[in-house]
Each structure stands twice: as C-alpha cells, then as structure tokens.
Amino acid sequence: MSRLGEILEHNKQFVHNQEYEQFRTTKYPDKHMVILTCMDTRLTDLLPKAMNVRHGDAKIIKNAGAIVSHPFGSIMRSILVAVYSLGAKEVFVVGHHDCGMTDLCSHEILDEAILNGISEETIDILRHSGIDIDEWLKGFSNVADSVAQSVSRIRHHPLFPKDVAVHGLIIHPETGKLDVVVNGYEVIESTIT
C-alpha cells in the first residue's frame, strides 16, 4: 500500500472512532503566543513539552531553520495574522543546535536539484531574472545569530506592534534545554525608557 493509502486508511478509522475529540479547540491560542521554529522532526513533540505548550495553546509556524528571510514573505504574514487576527501577544523564535541549515551552501541543494532532473538552464534563468537563488538557499553559520536576526526582522517590521514581545530561544534537540538569545521583555523595556 502507498503512503497516501496508509494515511487515508488510518484517517478513515480515526474519524470513525471519533479520535478527533481530544483535539477540539478554537482557532485562538489559549496562551496568546505564536512560535516560529524549525521543521526538524526532533522538535515535533519535544518543543511543545519543553515549553509547556499543549494543544491549542499556541500558533506554531515551522520552516527550515526558524528563519524570517523576507519581511513580506509568508512567515512574517503568518506572524502578523497571529497577532492581529488571532490574539497572539508574544512571539517566540526558537532555533536549535545541530540544525540542518547550519553552514548550508546553496550549491549543495542546487547540485541535488540537477541530479534530480532540474536543468542548469533553469537555474541560470532564475539567477538572471533577479532572483538571488544562492542567497535564498543559503543557511547560517551561527544559530544564535540567526535567531537574533529573525527576532530583529520581526521587531522592526513596519506593521509589527511595538508593545508585543519577541523572544529568541535556542533548544537542544536531544534534551529540550532552552537558552535565551533575546528576552523580548527587556527589549520593550529598553525602548520605553
């Protein structure tokens, strides 16, 4: 059976047995928070447990590296929607040690794309059409710096409210230990005084 077939068969039983009941909640986060974190599979269950976040407590946004790479991209839009439409009052950017984006070079991905049938001509067309594909696919060298940069991009966004705390954290993907990179409360206090 295909993976899709397995999923659909499981889903049929899930719905039939009403297992969804344990997941009922509203679209509004109970703890009024939004979390931007990495898509790393090690964090799927670990991060909510380590942060004491249960189902319905937070809006969780995931991407490669927990990076806000563009001020008007889908990550920033999701954060703004969470704050203005869904009642989030704090933002947590949570990177992690041993991230796959650490020291990632665009050529590694582009070489794999070529091996998977993407022509060099297509890549050249993208490069010559004003898309900085090499910068877009590049990772970071230091997770703390990357988290701090994403926090800064959120805080300084022209549509982001100045009284909403934006915190930066790093989680250890094996132990769940959290280290603070940016305390958003302190940043707000320093801008008030």
Explain what you see.
It is globular, with a radius of gyration of 19 Å. 25% of the residues are buried. It has helices at 3-16, 43-50, 74-84, 106-115, 120-128, 133-136, 143-155, 184-192, and strands spanning 33-38, 58-63, 90-96, 165-171, 178-182. 40% of the residues lie in helices and 16% in strands. The mean pLDDT is 95. It has a domain at 25-104 and 139-192: Beta-carbonic Anhydrase, Chain A (3-Layer(aba) Sandwich), CATH 3.40.1050. It has a 5-stranded mixed sheet, with helices on both faces. With 193 residues, it is α/β, with parallel strands linked by helices. Its EC number is 4.2.1.1. Pfam families: Pro_CA. Keywords: Metal-binding, Zinc.
Task: List key phrases describing it.
193 residues, Beta-carbonic Anhydrase, Chain A, 40% helix, five-stranded mixed β-sheet, alpha/beta
Query: Which outline best applies?
Result: globular
- Please report the total strand number as a whole number: 5
- Specify Rg, calculated over alpha carbons: 19 Å
Strand order of the largest sheet: 2-1-3-4-5
Chain-averaged pLDDT:
95
The CATH class label of one domain is Alpha Beta
Distance between the termini: 63 Å
Biggest β-sheet description: 5 strands, mixed
CATH architecture of one domain: 3-Layer(aba) Sandwich
**Named CATH topology of one domain:** Beta-carbonic Anhydrase, Chain A
Q: What is the H/E string?
A: HEHEHEHHHHEEH
Q: Count every helix, treating DSSP H or I runs of 4 or more residues as helices.
A: 8
Helix content: 40-55%
Stretches where pLDDT is under 50 for at least 5 consecutive residues are none
Instruction: Bin the strand percentage.
Output: 15-25%
User: From the helix content, strand content and strand pairing, which structural class follows?
Assistant: alpha/beta
CATH homologous superfamily assignment of one domain: Carbonic anhydrase
GO molecular function: carbonate dehydratase activity; zinc ion binding
Family: Belongs to the beta-class carbonic anhydrase family.
Catalytic activity: hydrogencarbonate + H(+) = CO2 + H2O
EC number: 4.2.1.1
